[in-house]
Fold this protein.
Amino acid sequence: MTENTPQNNEPLGATYQRGPAIMRGSMIPSASSTANLLGGDDHQDWRDIDPWRVLRIQSEFVEGFDELADLGPAVGVFGSARASSDSDDYHAAERMGQLLAQRHVAVITGGGPGIMEAANKGAALAGGKSVGLGIELPFEQGLNAYVTLGLSFRYFFVRKTMFTKYSSGIIVCPGGFGTFDELFEVLTLVQTHKMTSMPVVLYGKNYWRGLFDWLDGPVRKRGMISRIDPHLVLLTDDIEEAVHVATSTIPSV
Ligand SMILES: CC(C)=CCNc1ncnc2c1ncn2[C@@H]1O[C@H](COP(=O)(O)O)[C@@H](O)[C@H]1O
């Protein structure tokens, strides 16, 4: 959603969440916490403000680690916030959530709509752990209705740390910039050995083929990356295979 127009059952338009606060209508601020942090403060000396922000950032890390420490094995499912509930991708992500839950593996998503909702729905309705790591965004509706353990973050980078720290594998469904960001975060951390290698499954061969060919073609030929390890990155249209590979490093599965 891009503007604050009234929704179906929302007479005041969309809901905006900032930390513990919920805002609607004219109370919604024009910039998010991340935008304020990265944009600098032209009205005050930055030194008056950023040290305090550090404490807030720190508290997001502490709360995140605290809530997720006992989660157990988990797989991250990423993908478009805009996938409609009658799309093939939505149904596929829902099935992934269900299969993961049946294997007693928690599902971690961004907690939003589209693919995130689908994976959370599949997991929750199968009785599994359905985690949503939401992000404070202007005009957002909050966590989707299928999250059974939800956390809301002000800062993208804190949230991304939680995704990577608590996932043993990831399944990346078709998506846009947000999805690319999450995919490349994991690939970068693995390549630089900041994270032990984890399986990365790209679901939707047609969708991902172009990117994959480019990476394995010009990018690799010019020596910008080494060969993509087929054991690390799998392209598939098979939901069962996606789940099997994404959970392949979890001993209990
Ligand atoms: C309808 C709409 C734009 C809602 C945005 N609401 C969101 N709520 C939570 N996580 C999100 C949201 N948008 C993007 N993300 C993050 O970025 C990814 C999707 O971004 P995209 O739609 O591919 O680029 C998701 O895996 C998620 O982790």
